[in-house]
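Hi team,

As requested, here is the filled-out complex form for the tryptophan run. I kept the field names the same as last time so the parser does not choke. Let me know if anything looks off before we queue the next batch.

— J.
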Amino acid sequence: MSKQEADYGTFEATVARSQKLEADLAVNPEKYRVLTGDRPTGRLHIGHLFGSLQNRVRLQQLGVPSFIVIADYQVLTDRDTFENISENVRQLTLDYLAVGLDPINENTAIFPHSHVPELNQLVLPFLTLVTNAELDRNPTVKEEIAASGLKRINAGMYNYPVHQAADILFCKGNVVPVGKDQLPHLELTRTIARRFNDRFGNKEMIFPEPQALLSTSPVILGLDGSQKMSKSRNNAIMLSATEDETAKLIKRAKTDSERNIFFDEASRPEVANLLLLLSFIEETSPEKIGEEIGDGGSGKLKSRLTEGLNEYLRPIRERRTDLESNMDHVTDVLKSGVDSARSVAQDTLDEVRKVMNMEL
Ligand code: TRP
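And here is what came back:
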């Protein structure tokens, strides 16, 4: 590993680069292409909204062209069920549209990668650029294997980070907004881009080395206050929940026995998490909200959060309900996303074939 690679690899270096990137995005949006994505495992919750969706909408508003990949093949790597994939893709797309990602008026494409054959074809040459040992070392994959409970690990599980490199590089994406857990995959993508250029590029840069845009929002815990918010842990408020459901969930949220409310993540994680959610909604610091509630106790904290959150989500939920009665529109959005992605992927694959001496 060269010195430069080693430096790039530290988390601090990634944070610093991400901050620089953030500043330049606002000034030169046209220099960039955002590629980001999710696995279609169902509906999204408020952790997704405050953790990543809002950031995507913001980048869209800055005028950065964005591709949002729905990683439906990746779902096959860690679960047995595939019956719901199509429905999950549609529900995910509804959530995207409801929060303001806008493929009609903005330069944003939403597409499932299974429908872009040229993207998938990049996986084959990419696989020859990494070693088994490198794939074996990926800490995120290791954790997912442990969490999946699967006794036999399919090869797709080890290889999906290479597939993810194809997701990112097919459109020459150079900005990837991610959480910390995705950094090993992005590092592998950078390695693949570099090795591809070195091996086939003949001094030309075919693929950019994409940069991480690290999420600045803190990890949002579930209503149990002890683990990350997630639907499978049953501690989430879904974007599509009703106002009543939201109220009930918040009522049951875990707090502690101390009456006076103040923000302290270490000693009062459950209360701190509810204050944090309020801080996103009210766009002020959780400390200040804590002081305001003070002796009002957790009752006051919960009623303020219920009201605030329902009001905040109201337009999103209304849009979602409207769209739900027009699922043909969702299909159209996905089809046009696939068209845009394919047109870019075809150009990239042509270029790749050419430099690999595989033209007819
Ligand atoms: N691996 C990501 C996840 O598990 C999903 C994903 C697939 C992705 N392809 C991507 C994320 C490309 C960012 C860029 O959540």
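Two things worth flagging: The chain has two domains: 11-217+326-355, 243-324. The pocket of tryptophan is lined by residues 35-39, 69, 71, 74, 164, 167-168, 176, 178, 182 (CB under 6 Å).

Thanks,
J.
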